[in-house]
Amino acid sequence: MISPLRSARESRGETLQTVAIAVGIDPGNLSRIERGTQTPSKDLTEKLVAYFGGEVNEVQVIFPERFAA
Predict the structure, then answer these.
(1) How much of the chain, in percent, has pLDDT values that exceed 90?
(2) Measured on CA atoms in the order 45, 46, 49, 52, is the torsion positive or negative?
(3) Separation between Cα atoms, residue 36 and residue 2, nearest integer Å
(4) DSSP state, residue 36
(5) What's the pLDDT tens digit per position in 39-65?
(6) Half-sphere exposure (CA, 13 Å, Cβ side) for 43?
(7) Backbone dihedral region of 24: left (phi > 0), alpha (psi from -120 to 50 degrees) or beta?
(8) How far is Cα 28 from Cα 57, in angstroms, rounded to an integer?
(9) What is the model's pTM?
(10) What pLDDT was estimated at residue 32?
(11) Rounded to whole angstroms, how far apart are CA atoms 23 and 64?
(12) What is the C-alpha to C-alpha distance for residues 40 and 30, in angstroms, rounded to an integer?
């Protein structure tokens, strides 16, 4: 499963580390969010959506399994 969040990150050529630092979390947490094994808080979801400038939306971040490629 490739989540919309991971697709957006990879399409920009960014690493887990880069995005995690930008939104203030641990890269391991971001990896788990991308894989759908961890659900982000509302605050973190908003930060991720803002960081990616609308390439992903809140529902795609919170429920990646519904949109996985």
Answers:
(1) 93
(2) negative
(3) 10
(4) T
(5) 999 999 999 999 999 899 999 999 999
(6) 3
(7) left
(8) 21
(9) 0.93
(10) 97
(11) 18
(12) 9
